[in-house]
Amino acid sequence: AAVGPSRLELAAEQIVGDGAVETWRAADETVRAKYRILGECSSALANKAQHFVGRGSETQ
User: Does residue 52 carry a pLDDT above 80?
Assistant: First the structure.
């Protein structure tokens, strides 16, 4: 019997869009390492942006 997508797969589709799981499956280890680095950088930038936006609202 087929099992539906995992919560991780659903989250990946929501974050990066349709085809995320297939892109990951097709990637070799070198490409996956690059994807991980990009993901870490994206998370760091999002956290900094959130902090910056939050700080801006405090000064008004």
Answer: no
Query: What letter represents residue 3's amino acid?
Result: V
**Element (H or E) spanning 14, and its range?**
helix 7-16
CA atoms within 13 A on the CB side of 52: 6
Answer yes or no: are the C-beta atoms of 24 and 32 closer than 8 Å. Answer: yes
pLDDT at position 56: 57
CA 27, 33, 39, 43: dihedral to nearest 10 degrees? 170
Q: How confident is the model at residue 55 (pLDDT cuts 50, 70, 90)?
A: low
